[in-house]
Each structure stands twice: as C-alpha cells, then as structure tokens.
Amino acid sequence: MKLKSLMVAFGMMAMALVANAEPKQATGQAMSWQCAPCHGINGQEFNEAMPPLAGMKKDEFVKAMIAFREGTRAAIIMDRVARGFNDAEIEAMAVWFEKQPAIQWENMTYVPTAGGKYEPK
Amino acid sequence: MKKGLLAGLIGLTLAGSAMAGHGEKPHAEHWTNATLTEKLAAMPEGNIANGQALHVQMMCNSCHGEQGESPSRNYASLNGQTKEYTMKMLLDYRDSRRWEDYKQANIMVKLARVMSDQDIADVAAFYAEQDMKAWDVDYTKDARIERLVAKGNANIMLTPCASCHGVHGEGNGITPAIAGQVPEYFVRTMKAYQEGHRNNDVHKGMSQFTHDLSDEDIKALANYYAQLPGGEK
Amino acid sequence: MSQNKITRRDLIKVFGASAVAATGLFGMSAKAYAKGANHVVIIGGGVGGSVCAKYLRFADADVKITMIEQNPEYITCLRSNDVMVGYHTLDELTFNYNTMREKYGINVMIDQVTGVDYDRKTVSTKNGEKVQYDRLVVSPGVDFRFQDYEGLSKELSDTKIPHAYKAGPQTLLLQKQLESIPQGGTAIICPPQNPFRCPPGPYERASLFAEWMQKHNPRGKVLICDPKDRFTKDGPFKKGWERLYGYGTDNSMIEWISGSQGGRVVGVDAKNMTIETDGDDHKGDLINIIPNQQAGKIAQIIGLTNHSGWCPIDRHTMESTLHKDVWVLGDSSIADAMPKSGYAAGSQAKVAAQAIADSLHGRSPGKAIYSNVCYSLAGENYGVSIAAIYEVRDGLIKPKGKSAGVSPITDKPAQPILEAVYQKNWQREFVKDVFS
C-alpha cells in the first residue's frame, strides 16, 4: 500500500511538474508566423527569391529545411535560419504550412500603374 | 575562372546604376533569325565539368537543384534542357532581352551579367547532360490533351506541340525541352506568353500559340509534360 | 468614443455602414462590435503596432482593436537610405492605414497620446479623448538624445545637421546635402553608441554615399566617426568596402575611425561645419550625427522605462514588468540579443498578439519564438545580411540553435549579388506583412 501511495504521489508530482513547466516547443503557427515577412502572410507569397510555403507538401518542407540546416543545399540565408530549428519544430511548421491554401502565381502578377511602375494586382 | 568572375563582378558593381535594377530597362535589339543563329554559332564549346563548378560557384544549385532539378514550384528545372535554349536564355537575361516587367527575373538578370560567353556555354553544356526527371503529378491519360500535343488544333491555330518540342518533349535547338518541367512554372510561363509579359521568342510564336488556350488546357498540358520523362512514350 | 468603449456607431463612423453591416471584415466577427467585447488599444502605428494589430486580428476575431498614431501616413525607415541616392522615392516608402481599417477592422485614431491611467485603464489623448482598454500595447520607437552632444539640438537636426534616422523631411534634407558636397568634399557620418535602432543603418548609408560619390563626386570621401570598435556585419561590410571602394588603401573612399581611435563625437560646431571627437576635430561638407537613443518619448512619460532609458519586459510575452496588462514592443523594449530593427519589432508583435489573445481567454501563453532577418546594401549590387532565430533561455532572449550569423565571406561572386536581389524582395514582402 505504501508503495502504491508513493507511486500515486510520485505520479501527481510529475503531473504537476508537467503542468507548471514552460511549454517545450512553440506551436507550428507561432513559428510559421515568423516566416511571413519573407514568405508572405500564411506563406502564400510568390516571389522570385522566396518560394511560397503555403500548401507545400509536408515532406518537401521537411526535406528542404533539413538540407538547409545540414548545409547540403546551397542557400543565401535559409541555412542560418534553419539552424534555429530542431526536427520536431520543422515538422510542426511543415504540418501548418501544408494546411494553408496555396495561392497561384497568376494572382501575384504585377500590373502597370499610371506612373509606369508595376504594382501587385 | 574564379579570379575572372570576381573581377567581372567588381567591374560590374562599379559600373553601378547605369545598369537597371530599379525598373528602367536597358535598350537591346530584338533577335532576328540571322542574328540569333550567328550568335549561337559563335558561342564557344561548353565544358561540362566547368559548367558543374559554375553551377555551384554561381549558386544556381540553390534554386535549381543539385542536378538542375528544381526543388520547389518557384523555379524552373534545367536538367535535360537543350544547350541552345539555356544559352539563349542566359544571353537574353544578360543583354536585357528577357526582362519580366513584374520584377520576377531580377535574380537571373543580375547573375547573367557577370557571366562570360564561355561561362554560359559551360553551364548550358552541364544542364544538357543531366537526365530529365518526371514529377509526381495528378495525370490520368487525357486523350484530348494528347491529341493537342500530337495533332494540334486547327480551330485555334495551334500547331502540335510535338512538332517543335519533340514527341518526348525533349526540345530541339532553341526550342526548349518541356518534359519534366515544374508544372507551376510551366503554367506561369504559358500565362506570361499569353499576357504578353514574355516576348523574347524570335517570332513571338508562343504568344500566338497560347492565345486561345484555356487555363484548363494549360494546366493539363503542364501535368502531361511534368510526368512525361520515363513514362509512356 | 470620448468617454468609453467604442460603440457600433463609432465603428460605422470610421468604416462606413456597408463595411460594418457586412458579415464581418477579414477575419473579424460581429462580436468585436458588441458592447462587452474586449478592447485592445495600441499606441504607435509603426511596424510593431501595425503588425500587432493585424496579427491580433488573426489570433482573435472577437476583439476590438484601436490603434492610436500621430501621423496619418507612415514612412518606412527601411530603404530610406536608398532615397538619398535616388534608388527609391519617399512616396514608394509611404503607407496609409486604409488596409488596417478596411481589411482587418482596426479603428485607427490619428491623435497623440498624452497619458495613461493604469488604475482606470484609460488612455488620454491630445484631442481630449479618453479611451478605455483591457490590454494596452505600446510601440513608440526611439527618442534621440541630442543632449549627449555639445551644440546639437532637435532644431539643428531639422535644419543643418540632420540625423535622417526617422524617414521623412530629414531624409530629403540629407539627400540635398549629399548632392551639394563640392567636388572632393567630405561627408561625415557619426553612428550612435549601442543600443540603437537599425544597427547596420549608418554603415549602409556610408556605403551608398560612397557609391554615389563614385559616380558624381569621384574625389569625395565618407568619414565614419564611431564611438564603437565593432558594428553589425562589420566583416562582410568591410570586405565589400575593400572590393568596391578601396577600403584599407590610401585611396579609400570610406574611412572608419573606431571608438578606440578616438572616433566618438562629443560636440558639433554647425557654423564651421566641424565636429569635435575624442580624437581630432573634423571638418565636413555634410555632417550626419545619428544621436544616441532611448525608448520613445511616450514610454518615458507613462513610466514604462527603467534606469537604462529602455522598457523592461517579460521575455516570454513582451508584457511590461512595470505595469500589468501593458505590452511594450520593438525598439523601446529590452530584448537582449535581438537588435532594434523593424523586423524584430514585427516578430515581437506576433508573439505579443498571441500572448494578448491568450491572456484575454485565460490560456497560458505558448513558447515564444522570435526572429530577425536583415539585408543591407554595401553597394547597389552587393548585399550583406544577418539572421537569427531567438528563444528565451536562462531568462534572456538568446539566439536559438546555431542560427545566428552574418553573410559568409566567400569567393562566390553570386553571393553578394543574390543578397542584393533578396534585399529588394525582402523589403517588398516585409512591408506587405506590415501594411497589406
């Protein structure tokens, strides 16, 4: 009985610890939001330097990030960015981005304005 | 090679904003059949090994993949492309004949400007040597599309795609290989021709051929060609 | 609006009846108009404030959001160095708040905050409004310490010795001064002491001035008088200067005097266009003193700063440690390893937006993750960058994993060219994340 109550007490302690501990990992959404200044809101932007992430197949995202992190894919800046994330975090972002609706490039074309400049449609 | 490139880079950067980069398009004469043929004939013989080194040195691999197979739907695949087409594109970027007004070609314009004719011939030789790869896309055999490819459609003045691009989409000279191309890239290139953003083809052929194609046709063609390499021939 | 929470009628006044009658603006529910809706008030419509407003809308469709900003338009400091050398116009960097209002249902008040009553949870403004809040966000940017330099004042910065470190009229003044430098003349740039907004800004400015001089004033020189011995991206910047401007040779167009070489500026004689430093006096045809900085004035007035002149925050949420239910974002906050940049402010604003939504719904906040990515130009076709992902570790915001780093110095000619193209794409996307 003693052993049992000890175990219960132990279990409760462990649970309390878990409840009070800081979350170990940011949510997929919180991490993905940090990508928006380059890849667009929800990763939906199409531009020549930064590929859209919205709707990207999960495995493709994971493969690209790990290749950047390990230095096996040449990069301008993504190698440095990817080194900030572990496998589980990359997975969480991949899951989130896969769910975002992809916007096709047609919607991103530029149309001429009166001043001869080109603005997003 | 490194030294030459670096000197080129610095010379170019010093030349500074006489170059475009903030919207102004430098002047360049359109190709004629004669000038293009003459230029391509005058290009040096490409060296595959040097081309591979340049592919890394110029960071082409960052966007176009280790062997030229694009790792994302943003960029074109270059593996298996004809030498002539790759050379023409790089010359067009370098000399401002290919200048997308919507600012989606700055990377290629800026990079091509530090490449010599020899550099261009080398990378073109490297890509031509790589195998095409099929994409895993939704494509169920579509008789109408395959008829379009093989027979064209007289009603919309469309000659068969295969008559210029080859029965396997393998390209021929300055007519590009389109088999194994990234489907999203294929679609937006066709749209760019259709909408007149892209006009560096010598006779504006593609803008005529795309004129009456529906979006559905374009998408189906993209998927057809994406899955073609190594598939049913 | 004057006495209490914003009513539906006020919203109709702001957005027009049709917008309010519609089933909702983008991501906004009808509940946000209800009388009892939670109300978040944001002071400052720069990057931090605007991103916070927008992402709070993503995080909570039912919350009322009011942003109070002094100016009807915002000019990004980002790329304002380009304006001085003719690569951009100020118009291209100017944004209004129409999208904030129309797309995200944010009530933007053009007014100036004069004080906050933390007990009554009320913000008062110059126009006599009293706005009640449930959660308050303060994102006021920086304030300049003209008093650190003998002979310098705000008036002088508006007329003769511009800092041009908030984009606007001073940007154009400095541009004019650059163009007026006689052949073979000198431009002096004096960066501030750490910490300050946009750490690469002064060095990018020096680079672009040198590049401009190559074309228009080839015997001209740029002299940087710095109180510091290091600066951000100094490795790749100096390599770029070597390649482009002969840095390190007798004919260099850029000379950098570090703090230990006596580069710190202590005073200015505007009449004789001379600066006094810890070392020699220097005469310039253009003098650009970028003063030392502290938290934006309103943060000081409403007691959010500590002895350092900056605002202490809870690193997990960006909530002020001095006042409850108040968040401080961006340049004004003490964010440890994170630089004071627009990108960092936007990054913090997203963490804060989620934390505010969580606090309103009694949820505990998730793990905070921050980022900073910044591209600068050492020349029009020569970019240098810095990037890092951040997390809270040992009570401080620190780079996560091995993410922190600047552009490698390589012999790949493509690297700086690509960085310069990426810089343009990054700027274009970044402002969309803020204002579109």
How would you describe the overall organization of this protein?
The complex is a heterotrimer of chains A (121), B (233) and C (436). Chain A has helices spanning 2-20, 28-33, 36-39, 58-70, 78-82, 87-99, and strands at 110-112, 118-120. Residues 15-19 and 107-121 of chain A have low confidence and may be disordered. In chain A, strands 1-2 form a two-stranded antiparallel ribbon. With 121 residues, chain A is mainly alpha-helical. Chain A is globular. Chain B has helices spanning 2-15, 33-42, 48-57, 60-64, 83-94, 106-112, 117-129, 143-151, 161-165, 183-194, 205-210, 215-227. Chain B folds into two domains: 2-14 and 29-129, Cytochrome Bc1 Complex, Chain D, domain 2; 143-227, Cytochrome Bc1 Complex, Chain D, domain 2 (Orthogonal Bundle). Chain C has two domains: 8-143 and 294-365, FAD/NAD(P)-binding domain (3-Layer(bba) Sandwich); 149-290, FAD/NAD(P)-binding domain (3-Layer(bba) Sandwich). Helix content of chain C is 30%, strand content 24%. Chain C has helices at residues 8-15, 17-21, 47-59, 80-84, 98-104, 154-159, 169-180, 201-216, 234-245, 297-301, 342-360, 414-435; strands at residues 39-43, 64-69, 73-75, 94-96, 107-110, 113-117, 122-125, 130-132, 135-138, 142-144, 186-190, 221-225, 254-257, 265-269, 274-277, 281-283, 286-289, 293-295, 326-328, 370-379, 382-393, 396-399, 405-406. In chain C, helix 3 (47-59) packs parallel to helix 11 (342-360) and helix 8 (201-216) packs parallel to helix 9. Chains in contact: A-B, A-C, B-C. The interface between A and C is large, with 31 and 42 residues.
